[in-house]
Specification:
46% of the residues lie in helices and 10% in strands. By secondary structure, it is α/β, with parallel strands linked by helices. It folds into two domains: 417 residues, NagB/RpiA/CoA transferase-like (Rossmann fold, 3-Layer(aba) Sandwich), CATH 3.40.50; 77 residues, no CATH class. Strands 1-10-7-4-2-3 form a six-stranded parallel beta sheet, with helices on both faces. Strands 8-5-6-9 form a four-stranded mixed beta sheet. A hairpin with a 4-residue loop joins strand 5 and strand 6. The protein is globular, with a radius of gyration of 27 Å. It starts with 24 loop residues before the first helix and ends in an 18-residue tail after the last helix. This is LutB/LldF family L-lactate oxidation iron-sulfur protein. Keywords: 4Fe-4S, Electron transport, Iron, Iron-sulfur, Metal-binding, Repeat, Transport. Pfam families: Fer4_8, LUD_dom.
Length: 507
């Protein structure tokens, strides 16, 4: 199939699927913050993964060099994206595969459905895939009478629980093992009614449930961690081996891959096979890494397809300040160190992509002006822990600030009337540009003290300041500024930038 042109900016998608939130982060977060069990589950899981990661990363003396290499490879891939995608299509097709191009979630879902109808398939097995979650493929197929069975254990837990993923790597991170046992007892056909919450017993129950699906399904659907332009190779990494069953047993394999997953060369995998497992699961190497190049008679699926998904990615690519968000390798390291995510969980973000990376990726894909996602760039304290943890050095705090600025600009409207924040920033600029200006404002300090209550605090400010005092008090300003006290003591003239002599120095 001929590639669609990758113009920049791209034609806006018609439907984004599950990357558009249904409510804003400030509205969604409080209900999750109030869930004590959720917060306990999240804290235990994120701290466990975080500690494992720190141990295995510290073993590599060249970790920072690996991060630099990963960042450089992804930057090259984004710079050459149209060229690399065309090369990937050529190589994949030459090896017996079929390439399809999808502008958005609607087109991708329609392509998958069409392929299943042609093969008269009424059920499919799935490898864990963020891209299919993003486009809402399971829901699309279910509405049309086609059953999609998740085979990743955590994804299976989420599916049986009629839930949504809360984490990129560990989708059921918000559930503890007792909750998982209860879900299995209620939703898994033929499960032992005496099932306990012992992890081994839970895994055995899931294995027995899935084995029949693996042996009967004629079609499998996968995602892809990487696509190699040089050879037309696709790759999936996973920890359980269930994915490999999907990739080898069915007759037809359909892969949905975001166009940003392409890498220039096969040798580039050497960098990411060190970065990804250490950053995601805290392991030195990935337990199961599956690579396939087209179709091979007598070895695995004979009918192989890949759907190259845009769904806002060329929009993000056109943003020179935010395009590095497309470097993400979906390791979840940023989420495991984020104080905001640890307390709210992934559901508060309302998108397939939660946490710090979701706070920038979702608005970049949909456009920050989209009302559903315009609050996500503010779901951060800008502490910078995510940037330190990111294996490909995505400067998430910098992009968050950029997107906040974009959001402010989008709210001004055609007349571009100055907002309260604009006026406040202009006032601050004037005050801080000259010592005389600052001194003039300091004369109003007594007025600030007069506005304070009997407890010496200001509990309510008007206008823009009301947002601050809704949740915190402001201490009353001092009676005199430091500059005023300094001048009164006669130690120096602040206008001349003099410093007082310390004891023992020549006067």
């Amino acid at each position: 199939m001929t590639a669609v042109p990758l113009g920049i900016p791209a034609i806006p998608p018609r439907g984004f699927g599950n990357i558009s939130a249904t409510e804003s982060f400030p509205d969604a977060a409080p209900q999750h913050l109030a869930n004590g069990q959720l917060r306990a589950n999240l804290r235990h899981a994120t701290h466990t993964i975080r500690d494992k990661r720190l141990r295995v990363v510290s073993e590599l003396p060249d970790w920072e060099e690996l991060r630099e290499a990963g960042s450089a490879i992804k930057a090259e891939a984004m710079e050459r994206l149209p060229e690399l995608l065309a090369q990937f299509e050529e190589q994949f097709t030459a090896r017996g595969g079929t390439v399809h191009w999808a502008r958005d979630a609607d087109e991708a879902n329609a392509i998958v459905e069409g392929l299943l109808r042609e093969r008269e398939a009424t059920e499919v097995v799935k490898v864990k895939s963020m891209a299919t979650q993003e486009i809402g493929l399971n829901e699309h197929l279910e509405e049309r009478g086609i059953a999609a069975y998740e085979t990743d254990l955590a994804e299976l837990i989420v599916q049986l629980g009629h839930d949504k993923p809360s984490h990129i790597l560990v989708p059921a991170i918000h559930r503890n093992r007792t909750e998982i046992r209860d879900i299995f007892l209620a939703e898994m056909p033929g499960v032992d009614p005496e099932l306990t919450d012992e992890p081994r017993r839970l895994a055995m129950a899931a294995r027995a449930h899935l084995r029949a699906k693996f042996l009967s399904a004629k079609v499998a659907i996968s995602g892809a961690n990487f696509g190699i332009a040089e050879t037309g190779t696709l790759g999936v990494v996973e920890s359980e081996g269930n994915g490999r069953m999907c990739l080898t047993l069915p007759e037809t394999l359909i892969t949905v891959m975001g166009i940003e997953k392409v890498l220039p060369r096969a040798e580039d995998l050497g960098v990411f096979m060190q970065l990804l497992p250490r950053s995601s699961t805290g392991e030195r190497m990935n337990p199961y890494t599956s690579l396939w190049t087209g179709a091979m008679p007598g070895d695995g699926p004979s009918d192989v397809h890949v759907i190259l998904l845009d769904n806002g990615r060329t929009r993000a690519l056109a943003d020179r300040h935010g395009r590095s968000a497309l470097h993400c390798i979906r390791c979840s390291a940023c989420m495991n160190v984020c104080p905001v995510y640890e307390r709210t969980g992934g559901h508060a973000y309302g998108s397939t992509y939660p946490g710090p990376i979701g706070a920038i990726l979702s608005p970049l894909l949909t456009g920050v002006e989209a009302e559903e996602n315009n609050s996500l760039p503010y779901a951060s304290s800008l502490c910078g822990a995510c940037f330190d943890a990111c294996p490909v050095k995505i400067n998430i705090p910098e992009i968050l600030v950029h997107l906040r600025g974009e959001d402010v600009e989008s709210r001004r409207g055609a007349k571009r009337l100055p907002s309260q924040m604009d006026l406040a920033m202009k006032g601050a600029s004037w005050a801080l540009s000259d010592g005389a200006h600052l001194g003039l404002l300091e004369r109003g300090l007594p007025l600030g003290r007069a506005a304070a209550g009997r407890d010496g605090k200001i509990s309510k400010l008007p206008g823009l300041g009301a947002g601050w005092t809704q949740s915190r008090d402001i201490p009353a300003p001092p009676a005199e500024s430091f500059r005023q006290q300094w001048k009164k003591r006669g130690k120096a003239d602040p206008q001349k930038n003099e410093t007082p002599a310390t004891e023992g120095e020549a006067q």
